[in-house]
C-alpha cells in the first residue's frame, strides 16, 4: 500500500490536526515526519478540545498506530506533559505510539539558544515559537545532535555533557547564564519517562507495514510557506515541511507516496514575522481573527489574517505535487458580503505575475484581487448537495485557478463539521 501525505499549503495552522483525526480511521498508521513542539494541532469531537504538539493526530482513534518519525525534533519534557494530558482519555498510548530512535532530541539548552538567537536578531527576529526548533535542527545538521536512541546508550550522560558545554560557550557569548544542575533534573526525569515507550527503527516498521498492506497517513506540521528551502527564507522553520520531507522524515521511498492532500484555509493567516502579501491590517483582518479565533495553538499569539493568496497556493501545490485540496474554515468567511481572492501580484517595477518572487520583502508586492460574492449565511448542517450557490462558486473558482479538485470543505472545528465533495 501507499503512504498518503497530508500537509499545510500556507503558513501553518490550516487545520491539519482536525483532518488527520477525521481521516485516521481509514488508515492503519499515522506518522509525523518533521517539526516538533512548535506545532499545535487542534482536535475537537464529543465536546472535547485537545491540542497536540509532537504526538500524531491519530492518537484518539483506537486501531490506529502512531509514529513520531526520524524527521521530528522531540522534546522529552513536552512529550511527558503531552502524555500526562492525554491520561484523562484512557488511551492505550503505550501500545499504539512508537518513536523513531533516529528522531533528534531537544534538550533544555536548545530553548535557551532559541531565545538568545531571536534576541540577537532584534527587529529581524523570526518570531520563533521559542521551543528550541532552530538550534536542535542546527545540531542535527552540524552532526553533533543527540537522538532518541541515544537515551538507551550507556554513554548518554557523557554525550549530553559534551553538547551542553558546547551550548554553554555560545550562551556565554550571548550573556545568558544558566544553571544546568537545575535544568537537568526535569530533563532526566522526562528521559526516563520516554524510555518507557516503544523506541523503534521506524523506517523498518513503516516499510514492513507497507509490505503487509497497511495504509499510512503522513502528517505534516507547519506549512509549505515555512519550509526551510521553499518558504519565505529566513522567516521559516528549520525543517522540510513539503511532501519530499515525508520521504526523508520517515524513510519511505518516493514511489511509495500515494495521495498528497494539500490543506488550506479559505483565507490566509500567518503567525510570526515575514512577508504576507494579502495581510489585512484593518477591520476586515480583525473580523477574520475574531470569527476564526485566530490565536496560536502553541503560543497564544494573535495570528495575522488576510485574504486567500493564489500565487503562493499555486507554488505550494507545484512543490508538493498536491493531488487533492481540502478547504478549511469556510464558515469563517460567512461574515462577509463579498470575498476577495488575490490572483496575481504587481511588483514595484510594474510587472504583473502569478509567480512568487525570490525577493518578497523589498519587491513592493501589491496583491491584485478579484472579488466574488460571499455566501453570508450559516453553513451548519449542510452537505455537498445543498451548498449555498456563492460557496459552490467560490470552490469552483479556486479549483479552476488552482487546477486541483477540492475534495473536502470544513465548516467548523468539530470532526462532524466536514463536507466530502467526492466519495
Ligand atoms: P493545525 O496546526 O494545522 O492543526 O491547525 P491549528 O489547530 O493550529 O489551528 C486551526 C484552528 O482552527 C483550530 O482551533 C481548529 O479547531 C480550528 N478549525 C479547524 N477547522 C475549522 C473550520 O472548518 N472552521 C472553524 N471555524 N474552525 C476550524
Ligand atoms: P502547526 O503545525 C504556524 C512559525 C513561527 C515562526 C516560524 C519559525 O501548528 O501548523 P520555529 O519555532 O519553528 O523556529 O518558528 O514558524 N511556526 C508556525 N506557525 N503553525 C505552526 O505549526 C508553526 N510552527 C512554527 O511562528 O514564524
Ligand atoms: Mg497549529
Overview of the structural elements:
- The chain is an alpha/beta fold and 423 residues long.
- 31% of the residues lie in helices and 21% in strands.
- The chain is built from twelve helices and 20 strands.
- The strands form five sheets. A ten-stranded mixed beta sheet has the order 9-7-5-2-10-1-11-15-19-20, with helices on both faces.
- Helix 4 (108-121) packs across helix 5 and helix 4 packs parallel to helix 6.
- It is globular and about 65 Å long.
- Magnesium ion (MG) binds at residues 12-13, 39-41, 297.
SSE topology sketch:
Blueprint: E1 3-8, H1 16-23, E2 29-32, E3 41-45, E4 48-52, E5 65-68, E6 73-74, H2 76-86, H3 93-96, E7 97-100, E8 104-105, H4 108-121, H5 133-141, H6 156-173, H7 180-195, E9 198-200, H8 202-211, E10 216-219, H9 243-250, E11 257-265, E12 268-270, H10 283-291, E13 304-306, E14 308-309, H11 310-320, E15 324-328, E16 338-346, E17 352-353, E18 366-373, H12 389-402, E19 406-410, E20 418-420
Parallel strand pairs: 1-10, 1-11, 2-5, 2-10, 5-7, 6-8, 7-9, 11-15, 14-16, 15-19
Antiparallel strand pairs: 3-4, 12-13, 16-17, 16-18, 19-20
Residues 12-13, 39-41, 297 line the site of magnesium ion.
Amino acid at each position: 500500500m501507499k503512504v498518503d501525505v497530508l500537509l499545510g499549503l500556507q503558513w501553518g495552522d490550516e487545520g491539519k490536526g482536525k483532518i488527520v483525526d477525521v481521516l485516521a480511521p481509514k488508515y492503519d498508521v499515522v506518522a509525523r515526519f518533521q517539526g516538533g513542539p512548535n506545532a499545535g494541532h487542534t482536535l475537537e469531537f464529543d465536546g472535547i478540545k485537545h491540542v497536540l504538539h509532537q504526538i500524531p493526530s491519530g492518537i484518539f482513534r483506537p486501531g490506529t498506530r502512531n509514529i513520531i518519525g526520524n524527521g521530528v525534533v522531540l522534546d522529552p519534557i513536552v512529550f511527558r506533559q503531552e502524555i500526562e494530558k492525554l491520561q484523562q482519555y484512557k488511551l492505550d498510548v503505550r501500545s499504539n505510539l512508537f518513536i523513531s530512535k533516529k528522531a533528534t532530541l531537544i534538550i533544555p539548552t536548545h530553548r535557551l539558544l532559541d531565545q538568545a538567537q531571536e534576541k540577537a536578531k532584534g527587529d529581524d527576529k523570526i518570531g520563533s515559537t521559542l521551543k528550541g526548533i532552530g538550534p536542535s535542527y542546527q545540531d542535527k545538521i552540524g552532526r553533533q545532535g543527540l537522538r532518541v536512541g541515544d537515551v538507551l546508550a550507556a554513554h548518554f550522560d557523557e554525550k549530553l555533557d559534551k553538547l551542553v558545554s558546547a551550548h554553554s560557550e555560545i550562551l556565554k557569548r550571548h550573556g545568558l547564564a544558566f544553571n544546568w544542575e537545575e535544568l537537568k533534573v526535569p530533563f532526566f526525569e522526562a528521559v526516563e519517562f520516554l524510555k518507557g515507550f516503544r523506541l523503534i527503527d521506524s523506517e523498518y516498521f513503516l516499510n514492513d507495514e507497507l509490505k503487509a498492506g497497511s495504509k499510512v497517513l503522513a502528517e505534516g506540521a507547519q506549512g509549505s510557506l515555512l519550509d526551510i528551502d521553499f518558504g519565505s527564507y529566513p522567516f521559516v522553520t528549520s525543517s522540510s515541511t513539503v511532501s519530499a520531507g515525508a520521504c526523508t522524515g520517515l524513510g519511505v521511498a518516493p514511489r511509495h507516496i500515494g495521495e498528497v492532500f494539500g490543506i488550506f484555509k479559505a483565507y490566509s493567516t500567518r503567525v510570526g514575522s515575514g512577508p504576507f502579501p494579502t495581510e489585512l491590517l484593518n477591520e476586515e483582518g480583525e473580523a477574520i481573527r475574531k470569527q476564526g479565533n485566530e490565536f496560536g495553538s502553541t503560543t497564544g499569539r494573535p495570528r495575522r489574517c488576510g485574504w486567500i493568496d493564489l500565487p503562493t497556493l499555486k507554488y505550494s501545490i507545484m512543490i508538493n505535487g498536491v493531488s487533492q485540496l481540502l478547504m478549511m474554515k469556510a464558515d469563517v468567511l460567512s461574515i462577509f458580503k463579498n470575498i476577495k481572492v488575490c490572483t496575481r501580484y504587481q511588483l514595484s517595477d510594474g510587472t504583473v505575475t502569478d509567480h512568487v518572487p525570490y525577493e518578497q520583502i523589498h519587491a513592493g508586492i501589491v496583491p491584485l484581487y478579484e472579488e466574488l460574492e460571499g455566501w453570508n449565511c450559516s453553513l451548519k448542517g449542510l452537505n455537498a448537495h445543498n451548498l449555498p450557490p456563492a460557496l459552490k462558486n467560490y470552490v469552483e473558482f479556486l479549483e479552476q485557478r488552482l487546477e486541483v479538485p477540492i475534495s473536502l470543505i470544513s465548516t467548523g472545528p468539530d470532526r462532524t463539521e466536514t463536507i466530502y465533495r467526492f466519495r
